[in-house]
Amino acid sequence: MFTDRTMTNPLLDAIFEILSTGTHYKVHELAAQLTSQKVFPNLDSDPHKELFKKNFLIMNALYQLQSELHEYGHHLCISNMDIYLKQAAVDTTNSNELHVKSSAALRCYYLDWSNYETTKEEVETLLTSFWQKYQRTTQSLTPEEHTQLQKKWQLPTHYSATELQKRWRQLAIKNHPDKGGNAANFKQIKYEYEQLKNTL
User: Fold this and answer.
1) Could you give the count of Cα atoms lying within 13 Å of 60 in the half-sphere of its Cβ?
2) Are residues 87 and 150 in the same domain?
3) Where in the sequence is the domain holding 181, given as residue range(s)?
4) Which tens digit of pLDDT belongs to each residue from 140-195?
5) How far apart are CA 35 and CA 51, in angstroms?
6) What is the value of pTM for the model shown?
7) Do residues 9 and 60 touch, judged by C-beta distance below 8 A?
């Protein structure tokens, strides 16, 4: 069993952007959105395994996001029939506690990379290639510009892809137009994120 949290799921950004509008999705609808965005590479020659692996990556990303976003005061509701992001209530209700308990087994299953039916090395290779493949081409930063942007984003000197992604989601939630933020600010932050990704 290896639930290595440093192995960041490559779908986190794409799923976060889809859910950040507040729209509700079913798992198959979320999968269709990701497929239409051409996010998935070919995962397996067997169509049944291909479907399983896509589903596994989606669910793993959802549970990683759920844990992370909870730290920022947001709750990601995960159910096969209803997946959506909402502002967390101040008081945790009994029903929410029951929901968390009832989903604990699924969470453990999907956060365990060994259930992806491959070796740890193969998963790490997949995540690395996935991250590199879907970086968008943007204008390169000079060292001075990179230092300024790094300070603006309050990133450590030697930040990881995981730290950058987490900071992006913090800023995106704060500035998203559908959450009352400014559209121009959100667009600028998204562009800066692409620039910072290209420096990794």
Assistant:
1) 25
2) no
3) 136-200
4) 788 999 999 999 999 998 898 889 999 999 998 888 877 777 888 888 998 899 88
5) 12
6) 0.72
7) yes
